[in-house]
Amino acid sequence: MTVSRRFSLGLGHSTYAAVFGVVSLGIILNALLVVACLPFLVLLMTTDPARSWPLLALAAPLCAPALTAAAWTFRVHGTTVSGAAEGGVVRTFLAGYRATWRRALPLGALVTAFVTVALVDVRMLAETPAAVYVVPLLLVATVLACGVAVVAAVAIAEAPEARLRDILRASLFLAVTRGHLTIVSLVVLAAQAVLFTAMPALALGLTASASLYLVWANGRFTLRPVLSTADSDDVTHTQAAPAGAR
């Protein structure tokens, strides 16, 4: 028996199925993200952002539920043997969209409003004497807001029933205390944005889901203290419940 034959037998059908499942998950998820973010993408690709930024700011929050739905899909795919393929990637994505949009849409609106106001202030104050002091603070606040938004989006996908205020509070604390993880997520998203400006088709059709998966995994690790506490509380409540109530 040749080495290649042994290697192929060692992999087995389940390994090939798993690889195919991951590839199909990424391709389908990329298409779903494009459809869900279509208004924002059309404006971004057909207009001059320097002039159309008010419209972009209005359309940007519509992408937030798509991002939380993608995180939901990653979670379902990672917690079952056959992953999201059991119910279909599309069905899982839509279920995540329905479960998270009530929290994700306000989150997207808040972050977009904050970042828009901060960047407009940077533009207005750039040539004033106060720019030396104010502009760096505004830029740091903008980066922090983006980092909190990334962690909060993952938190919404993990606990869609939680209040947005509680999610933002926990996300702010963890995004700061685990700043190295937040920076990694922002670097991944920045790299994806740079790739989009250079090769939009490649960024949307191939690397979007891969980048979001890295951000989701990183955000879930950032949220581990909160998620571990929630899981422990669920176990305690289950054990304390009467036998007939389980």
Describe this protein's structure:
The protein has ten helices and no strands. Helix 2 (38-46) packs antiparallel against helix 3 (49-59) and helix 4 (64-79) crosses helix 9 (200-222). With 246 residues, the protein is an all-alpha fold. It is 85% helix and 0% strand. It has helices spanning 3-36, 38-46, 49-59, 64-79, 89-125, 131-158, 164-177, 179-198, 200-222, 224-240. The protein has one domain. Keywords: Membrane, Transmembrane, Transmembrane helix. It comes from Microbacterium paludicola. This is Ferredoxin-NADPH reductase. The chain crosses the membrane at residues 16-43, 55-74, 104-126, 132-155, 167-188, 194-216.
SSE layout:
Layout: H1 3-36, H2 38-46, H3 49-59, H4 64-79, H5 89-125, H6 131-158, H7 164-177, H8 179-198, H9 200-222, H10 224-240
Helix pairs in contact: 1-4, 1-9, 2-3, 4-5, 4-6, 4-9, 5-6, 6-7, 6-8, 6-9, 7-8, 8-9
Task: Give me a quick take on this structure.
The protein is an all-alpha fold and 246 residues long. The protein has helices at residues 3-36, 38-46, 49-59, 64-79, 89-125, 131-158, 164-177, 179-198, 200-222, 224-240.
